[in-house]
Each structure stands twice: as structure tokens, then as C-alpha cells.
Amino acid sequence: QAVVTQEPSLTVSPGGTVTLTCGSSTGEVTSGHYPYWFQQKPGQAPRTLIYDTNNKYSWTPVRFSGSLLGGKAALTLSGAQPEDEADYYCLFSYGGARVFGGGTKLTVL
Amino acid sequence: EVQLEESGGGLVQPGGSLRLSCEGSGFTFRNYWMQWVRQAPGKGLVWVSFIDSDGTTISYADSVKGRFTISRDNAKNTLYLQMNSLRAEDTAVYFCIRGLTVDYWGQGTLVTVSS
Q: Which residues pair with B86 in a beta bridge?
């Protein structure tokens, strides 16, 4: 089974920009992995922010964007807000299986 | 309003069985693939299984293959996860999720495997 790797933790200043990434043990991440990004705050169910690399839902704040960057999937937060402090997870599709990354704890400080 | 409500969690002994349910409302349940994801206390998300809209395409994570069975009853708008031969490492909150685009999540149900 593939392993999906995320930065364990990142810190961003309020109003700043940060990019979270997800890599795959199988090699380059492509649109065929249908990357998803989720946000989870303590005590809450996760919320989906991005699907299929860069598509947003109606509830996805404009400041979040998804992309492919340097062979990885990336989630960029531009103009961080205190309420963006959370755990972030990515999810890749590998044919009939799905694999989550280990999560990134994002601190806004 | 789309809602997913899981139920059936609880305390079970190692080797025991449990069946989780997830009732969907506010959307046409039979039109959507459905998935299960779990999260052990203080740990990350782990994908468990998916099932297509009519139950003919199913997939499992290696960690649950042969022990867990996903199914659905579209007449009852309900997704199920039959969990057998439970182990301590299956202890987690189990979330049901709508669709391949993973748009809506339930609030989860806690399964604790312990003697």
C-alpha cells in the first residue's frame, strides 16, 4: 500500500501565506490521484476543502487553493486567519484504494 | 440539508462483532457512492472502505479486508459496516462520507475494542 507524506507541522503568521504538501511513495503525484484536502478542528468532524486537485466547494474559503507543485499535491493558504489553525489532511486515490496522509498541524501565530 | 448520521458504535471485546449504520437524508441516497473513514484517538484519518451507488463495486483497506463488510440498503437510505474479528487497533471514531468527491461527513460514532 502506498504511503502519503505530509509535513507534520507548520506555522504561519496571521495574514501570511503557507503551502502544505503531500507526496506519494509511488512517485510523482498527478491529477489521476484526485487529490483531496480536508480541514479538521479539535473535537469536530473533518471538512472537505478541495477535491480533484483544485476544485472548491461553496463553503471553501477563497484563501485556500489546491495545485500540483514539484511532483506533489499542494494546499496554499493565502492570508491566514486565526480560525485556520487546524489539522489538514490530504487523500489520494490509487485505483480501488484510497490513502490519507498523516496530517499537518497548522499553527497560526 | 444533507445529513449523515452514524450509529451502532460502542464497547466490544476483542474478537467480537459490531455493525455500524449511517443514515443519509436531504439527498437522493441511491445516487451516491459512500465511504467509511476512521480515526483512532489522537491519530490521523484512515480510509476504510467504499461502495458504489448500487453496491456492485466495493473496496477495502488492507487492514480490514476479510474482517469488515460494507453494504447499503437504498430503500432505507442507509449505509452499513459489519465489523467482525475486532482488534484493539480498530478502536476509532468511524465516519461515513458521501460520494467520491467526499463532500459531506457525518459526526462519527466511537468504537472501542477492549476487554
A: none
Chain B partners within 8 Å of A87 (Cβ): 44
Count Cα atoms within 13 angstroms, Cβ side, for A67. Answer: 8
Listed residue (A86, A92, A82, A74) closest to A35, CA to CA: A92
CB contact under 8 A, B103 and A40: no
**Which residues does A46 contact at the CB level (< 8 Å), separation at least 6?**
A38, A39, A40, A89, B45, B95, B105
Cα distance between residue B17 and residue B85, in whole Å: 6
Asked if A1's CB is within 8 angstroms of B105's CB, the reply is no
> What's the first-to-final CA gap in chain B, in angstroms?
40
pLDDT tens digits along B55-112? 999 999 999 999 999 999 999 999 999 999 999 999 999 999 999 889 999 999 999 9
Nearest chain B residue to A56 by CA distance is: B103
List B residues 36-95 in contact with A (Cβ-Cβ < 8 A): 37, 44-47, 50, 59, 61-62, 95
Q: Do A36 and B106 touch (CB under 8 A)?
A: no
**What are the angstrom distances between the C-alpha of B79 and each of A16, B1, B9, B29, B113?**
42, 18, 14, 9, 22
